[in-house]
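dumping these here so i dont lose them again. two proteins, back to back, each one seq then structure tokens. dont judge the mess
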Amino acid sequence: MHANVKRFFDIIVSILALVCFSPFFLIVFVLDLFGDNRGPLLYAQVRVGKNHKKFKILKFRSMIVDADKKLAADPELFAKYVANNYKLPSGEDPRVTKLGAFLRKTSLDEIPQFLNILSGEMTLIGPRPVVEPELKEYGNEVDLLLSVKPGAMGYWQANGRSNIGYPERCNLELYYVKNASLGFDLRILFKNIYSIFRSEGAF
């Protein structure tokens, strides 16, 4: 019953969000035609979803074109990326454009994930989807993490997002999986909205 209600809610919310934010897609598209921002509107990265099924998470592109190749080609930069919980420290990522920094700070880069939610690859509330190398952080509880759909908003995000690294992130994400309920989802939703307005842990 919980899963059916969540899916119905996901479909309604994602359709409404995509309609409301459709003008923003056009604005970002136009801005992506100029300067350092020049390039595709969307960035797709492979993440691991429910039952180990891989999918491409969608975001407004916040980096220069071929940013992943630049990261992989720089051993020092890649080592810093891994050491900082698979994200470079705020203000220290040379790949992020000025527009991208704004999109990340305001969490507007996440808007295209409503397409992932509508398609059923993600849900509104759930553990954040990870890249494959991050799975080792979950040890023998990987299958538990991947027993549910990943979410656009999660308990880890609600408690500080990028300000909270591993292994504490694992504890928060797994706590959600073990205690998931509609009431818990609503609490997480409101906490995430509050964090977004405060730009907490977003970079």
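---- next one ----
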Amino acid sequence: MDDQVSLRPVREADLAVLESLTENPEVTGEFAWFGYGDPMRYRRSWAENALLGPEGGTLMVAGDTGSLGFVSWGRRRTTRSSYCWVLGIAMLPDARGRGLGTQAHRLLARYLFDHTTAHRLEADTETGNVAEQRALEKAGFVREGIMRGCAWRDGAWRDGVIYSLLRTDPRP
């Protein structure tokens, strides 16, 4: 637990939250709506491995009132013999702007460093998503640079900002 949030495995009852945060444009938020996708992908993955596997996973961000959103990670090979985790987060509208995402980032980083051999974590967001940039920086991530024209959203190519956190970096 990190003040107001904890991370826990996804339960079957959480699948509706995951689907809403990725498939409902009124819930996803301005920077996470990429159009309609496969609404059943979480249900298939949950049935297969409860959304936890060697190539990545998803955990729910939970608070006193229930599910607040989710965090996810996926493996990105950096050389033949090494990899890093690429992190993602989606918070429900009522959970945004309260520092809960920062806490969730910290908890996920701690979890991955405690339970995997990865040395590097990465996260990225659009240049216009100042709230997510602040959350990453408060969680100890270091801004590395701009990725020009890396994401297609809402009819235009968007620039992104990449952040990293190393196992050896100081924790806030």
